[in-house]
Amino acid sequence: MAQDIYLIANGDLRLSANQVCWPAQQEAERQLTAAIEKLGHKVVRGHELDAAKQHGFIDSQKRGLEVFESIPPKAPLIVCEAVWQYSQHVLPGLMTHQGPILTAANWSGQWPGLVGMLNLNGSLAKAGVAYSTIWSESFDDEYFLDKLGDWLSEGSIKHSEIHVKAANDVMVPHKSSLLAKDVVKTLVDKKAILGVFDEGCMGMYNAIIPDELLAKASVFKERLSQSALYAEMRATADAEAQAVRDWLDAKGMRFHTGSDEATELTDAQILQQCKMYIAALRIADDFGCAAIGIQYQQGLKDLCPASDLAEGLLNNVDRPPVTSRDGSRVLYEGQALPHFNEVDECAGLDALITNRLWTAMGFSPETTLHDVRWGDDYQGRFVWVFEISGAVPPEHLAGGYAGAVSERQPPMYFPLGGGTIKGVSKPGWAIWSRIYVLDGKMQADLGVLEVAELPQQETERRWQATTPQWPILHAVLPGIDRNKMMGRHKSNHIQVAYVPDQSQISYALGAKIHAFRNLGIDVFLCGAGHEL
Q: What distances in angstroms separate CA 257 from CA 12, 276, 336, 414, 501, one per listed residue?
């Protein structure tokens, strides 16, 4: 490999986030550079610090194109990530780059650098761009140095996938296949619509399913506008929003409120979130949507509070009733309306199929995506931190609504505030999954997840190491260690749905495998904890 290794740093679109997170990025680059130099190579930064903006990130697609003009097209290139990043900023340059590409992240939960890198990895995979990936807490551990050495000498890194097997020939339980067959037939015969409120949230190219692939699963997109959602919010009466708030108060949900709109959650912000919940249901009903996705951050963040409260409520069967505009019907009565956070269509398709399978099995059908945020050892086991501020239904939380508290989103992401549905996911067993696009096909990884129960002190430590305003899930993935998971997973997101108990794992997993396979999705079974 060439002596000079080029390094770039992809960042957020928001100036406030880039400025706050810049010191963490600098430290990660310093450690990574030192490791590369020890192995006899020189690091050349592909772009400089912007003194006026007070950070050194690529912060737009325009800036990314400018940066790649000065990088030799065949140079070895590292994308170093310690923060959340918008993949679209660098994808055009990476798609045409001819040299070996490495994505590298610090193993830290402080900012979503691991989440950003996994999103970039999934986007590169979908685009058919060859890349290698690596991560490290200190950039001096044996695994990292061995893999970095491989990349510097061979131009590629291979991570073990011994935990993965194709599920094409797996024999699923007979009752699973019978149930899934009926669910698939109904979907194929009647078809379904995903309501997409502005596609492509936060540069997540990997979260967009091409229409022709989605159609193979008998699902179609209704492309909706966030402006229509905002207009519907404005048309919603204050009294209707207050009724939603009163319902939540009666359920025992708590709201940490204050009076400073700039830094605290206020009652006015909560009412706006309740209006969004009502508006989303009415628009979904207008267009016959079986699931919807709101873009979550960009666009609406400059007009109204965050969508977190609305998203979590939509994903819950037991939720505040909303009527049609004329008051004649309760919309989606007795049902969850699956919501896919950040308009991640891969998660939306998964949530739709899972909701129907779980309902048919008589299981609680609530489902959510999470960020694969970070993880750490606890008493001899590696326990992941799964977090996502939106979409988590109260049914997933210990104590339900009474175990949930709403806290204001950080101002650097959400200047107009809005509260989350914060809580700790209840201990138990779940099926995890991820649909993704690779080699022009829809594929999916599935596995078993144990939701662990940790002491409050350890939970608080993990919250403080990540984002304490967000709901948390303590995840143990049987048969999959940290490095295997990171090396294989092709998304920042992971889908989670509980099963009643461990004895139901094979039934649920088998049904999901059968349904996915018969809807044109190639399935891979990951890890252990299942007998099929």
A: 28, 19, 27, 16, 37
By the 8 A CB rule, do 210 and 437 touch? Answer: yes
pLDDT tens column, 301-335: 889 999 999 999 999 999 999 999 999 999 999 99
Strand bridging mode 101-106 / 192-197: unpaired
Helices (DSSP H) in 167-222: which residue ranges? 174-190, 211-215
CATH top class, domain 4-154: alpha beta
Structure tokens at 186: 């109904």
CA distance 97 to 100: 8
Tell me how many degrees the CA angle 177-178-181 measures, rounded to the nearest 5: 80
Terminal-residue alpha carbon distance, the chain: 45
- For the chain, give every domain's residue range: 4-154, 174-526
- Place domain 174-526 in its CATH homologous superfamily: L-fucose Isomerase; Chain A, domain 2 (3.40.275.10)
- Supply the pLDDT for residue 42: 97
Q: How are beta strands 381-387 and 405-406 bridged, if at all?
A: unpaired
Residues 396, 313 contacting (CB under 8 angstroms): no
The sheet that has 192-197: what strands, in order across it? Answer: 219-224, 192-197, 291-294
